[in-house]
Specification:
Two copies of one chain form a homodimer. In chain A, 44% of the residues lie in helices and 16% in strands. The first copy, chain A, is of the alpha/beta class. In chain A, the strands form two sheets. Chain A has a six-stranded parallel β-sheet, sandwiched between helices. Chain A has a two-stranded antiparallel ribbon with strand order 2-3.
């Protein structure tokens, strides 16, 4: 299906600027499984690009090798479904570079929509995000690793998505599962 | 909230009987992150018990140590939220033992509801599963690792849940993300 929802949507998995346990802004290490899980989710929901954001050169090299293994190396024949998912992964040095790349691709700057377990201010719900996408705006949905996106980034993001509520107050999902749930709420074929 | 949906529901992460890439029935190795992610998801959605099913004695010992670290060891003070999640994990040798344990706990044998990306026969949708839970039946929702639950188990399960549809035909989620999406569809606070 042609689809303004997914044609205009990219996702970014940020390893900087994120918080550690104490609230300090850090750069986290890339976790292989995060890249696999997000790429497979994105592919399932028709999203073309997953930006893996890290400023660290050795991590850029390492994840580049991981992706190359599955896209064009031995992994591509061993598991073609994994290739199909990882083809959409683009490793990039900063969220600013994500913004510029998407602006070039779409001819207009994207809205950056941050995700957070405990947003500091006003949030946008999935219906609002759908409206934004249907109106034709390119959107990058940004997920933070470690203890989540740094407050300074949340303040400069165009919007912050409303957090996932389960049943009760516990809200400590991994970035892998939180991203999956958010994509399903936004794009899934629900009953 | 008291809640017939969650009081009657447990989940099981099965490492046997599951399939490998070629469709052979195997026992897979336990992946630490699967245990963490499922425990955190279960806690988020108010589910009390996550059975980690493996017949392998060394794996039972290993996962026992992992859980003990977070529940009563150094990890419990380092990250209390992780403790809260992992307290619900019970390591057990077979799905038959899961059935017996839940039967003892609830006074009546549970229904085992299997999950599969490509179910071989009739399926139950999330609404049907909700009705079953609301009617007071104890239910164990079973997730398979590796290439999914073995066909022989799917045939003997009481029900098979309808698979997740994204947008298109690609359906190769990790067990971590598939379980998260299914729990959210079943129990999430949706808009």
């Amino acid at each position: 299906l042609t689809d303004s929802l997914t044609d205009n949507l990219s996702i970014a998995l940020a390893h900087h600027p994120v918080q550690n346990k104490h609230g300090d802004t850090i750069t986290s290490a890339v976790t292989n499984l995060d890249v696999h899980d997000l790429a497979r989710c994105a592919r399932t929901y028709g999203i073309n690009t997953v930006f893996v954001v890290t400023p660290l050169e050795d991590q850029i090299r390492l994840i580049g090798q991981l992706v190359a293994h599955w896209v064009s190396g031995y992994g591509a024949t061993y598991n073609p479904k994994r290739r199909e998912a990882l083809e959409g992964v683009q490793i990039i040095e900063s969220l600013e570079a994500v913004r510029e790349t998407v602006a070039l691709r779409h001819g207009t700057p994207p809205k950056l929509v941050a995700t957070a377990a405990r947003p500091p201010g006003e949030t946008m719900d999935p219906v609002g995000l759908k409206r934004l996408l249907e109106a034709g705006a390119p959107v990058v949905l940004v997920f933070g690793t470690a203890w989540g996106l740094a407050p300074a980034f949340l303040q400069t993001a165009d919007h912050v998505l409303a957090p996932i509520r389960g049943r009760g107050d516990y809200n400590h999902l991994s970035v892998r599962t939180a991203a999956a749930i958010i994509l399903d709420r936004l794009l899934g074929d629900r009953h």
